[in-house]
Amino acid sequence: MSSSPRIAVLASGRGSNLAALLAARERGELPVDFVLVASDRANAGALRLAEAANIPTLALDPRSYPDRRGFDMDLFARLAASGAEWLVLAGFMRILDGTALAPWVGRMINIHPSLLPKYRGLHTHRRALEANDPEHGASVHFVTAELDGGPVIAQARLPIEAGDDEQQLAQRLLPLEHRLLPAALSLLVSNQLQWRNGAPHFNGQPLPRPLTLGADGVLSLK
Ligand code: GAR
Questions:
Q1: 94-98 — which CB contacts under 8 Å span 24+ positions?
Q2: Could you tell me the pLDDT band of residue 95, with boundaries at 50, 70 and 90?
Q3: How many angstroms is it from 1 CA to the middle of ligand 1?
Q4: Closest residue (by CA) to atom 12 of ligand 1?
């Protein structure tokens, strides 16, 4: 086994955030090993991307399990067996069972397309528009049993412009997500960001607020 931090990625969809992680590694900005890409959908684009990059893949069908916990227990057992040290949810569209994920708290992050704590769950772009918010964004947070509710590590912010519709907003946000997720993971695997005593710490100090993605692509406390 290599000495680089070992990452497994979970994704349900097209996998553009996975692609961004792979590209960051290619550029030498993310010194990690991707040991597994897992999905709840056999036709997920993310699995095809992983195959093309020679990363082992796993597709598990939730319908072949009696209940959510059964699926999640099997999924997390297989993730552990992959040797992964960190889990990244990159568009994984399932609610996770609290018991199954408990051993991973502090070692699992998720990217969510809103400025959490605003708009947990679905339709985040639409909800930001409907609320006439001046800005929108994306968040990376530690995953806990609470849906989209774990402590937020880092955010990217985006002004909402007059006339924006849901699709335009999503399109403008996505490239920011693609910078945010690798930047946050990089801080995590280098131990600059750590989960300690149930809370995120940055450079040894409790994180007072989420880090913000700058125009230079660097995460900092603003
Ligand atoms: C991304 O926008 C991500 O933030 C969102 O799903 C999309 C996946 O796109 N995640 C969630 O909504 C999680 N609650 P991708 O498959 O192209 O990376």
A1: 94/12, 94/40, 94/62, 94/68, 95/68, 95/147, 96/72, 96/143, 96/145, 97/68, 97/69, 97/72, 97/73, 98/145
A2: very high
A3: 30
A4: 112
Of 193, 16, 40, which Cα lies nearest the Cα of 113? 16
What's the pLDDT tens digit per position in 116-125? Answer: 999 999 999 9
74 CB burial (10 A radius; 0-12, 13-18, 19+): middle
Q: Is residue 172 in contact with ligand 1, taking CB distance under 6 Å?
A: no
Ligand 1 proximity of 90 Cβ (cutoff 6 Å): yes
- Could you give phi then psi for residue 37, rounded to 5 degrees? -120, 120
Q: Which atom of ligand 1 is nearest to the CA of 20?
A: 18
At residue 68's C-alpha, the angle toward residues 65 and 69, to 5°, is 95
The whole-angstrom separation of Cα 66 and Cα 32 is 35
Query: Which pLDDT band holds residue 222 (cuts at 50, 70, 90)?
Result: confident
Query: Atom 6 (ligand 1): residue with closest C-alpha?
Result: 91
| Mean of all residue pLDDT scores within the chain | 97
pLDDT at residue 21 greater than cutoff 60: yes
The partner residues of 194 in beta bridges, in order of sequence, read 201
Specify whether 112 is catalytic.
yes
Q: Which amino acid is at 143?
A: V
pLDDT in tens, 31-85: 999 999 999 999 999 999 999 999 999 999 999 999 999 999 999 999 999 999 9
| CB 60 within 8 Å of CB 47 | no
Ligand 1 touching residue 106 (CB < 6 A): no
